[in-house]
Amino acid sequence: MAAALFAVLFALPAAAATVEVVVEGADPGASVSVALCQGGLSEEACSAGQETTARGGAVTVVFRDVTAGRYAVAAFEDVNGNRRLDRTGLGLPTEPYGFSGGAGLKARPTFAEAAFDLREPGSALRVRLARALPRR
Predict the structure, then answer these.
(1) CA–CA separation, 49 vs 61, rounded Å?
(2) Which of 42, 40, 22, 41 is nearest to 32 (CA)?
(3) DSSP code for 56
(4) Which of 2, 61, 67, 70 is the most exposed, fewest CB within 10 Å of its CB?
(5) What is the pLDDT along the chain (136 residues), one digit of tens a residue?
């Protein structure tokens, strides 16, 4: 009986949660991309993403049915509409960007610095966009 109960409990699907992200500091009317990252901050690790238009300098995106785990959020304002975070030859972002936990405002963040633990029913976080370089 105990073995059957054990099998049923571990056969249940992983619980899903919701991640609500408010991104502040965008220019009104700007396109903002927000990605949910797992295991790293590379493009491959940040495959769940949404784009939306800023109203009043902020956007809100919601990721639904996310499996509980350790995640980070990366966001940027797509100034030129090419759907990529543009960088200088030295790797500095030329567009406003931000990460969960306030990571990356002074140096390139690690996943651990931006990560948060997601549990049911979910999380709500704020990301503030910043510029590495002055406006051109």
Answers:
(1) 9
(2) 22
(3) T
(4) 2
(5) 444 433 333 444 557 899 999 999 999 999 999 999 999 999 899 989 999 999 988 999 999 999 999 999 999 999 999 999 999 998 889 999 999 998 877 778 999 999 999 999 999 999 999 988 887 6
Amino acid at 22: V
Nearest to 26 by CA among 48, 5, 53, 7: 53
Contact call for residues 122 and 116 (beta carbons, < 8 A): no
Q: Which residues contact 18 (CB under 8 A, 6 or more apart)?
A: 62, 63, 64, 65, 66, 121, 122, 123
Tokens for 19, please give them: 């991640």
pTM: 0.84
| C-alpha to C-alpha distances, 32 to 28, 53, 130, nearest whole angstrom | 10, 6, 13
Give the type of residue at 81. G
Measured distance CA(81)–CA(31) in Å, rounded: 7
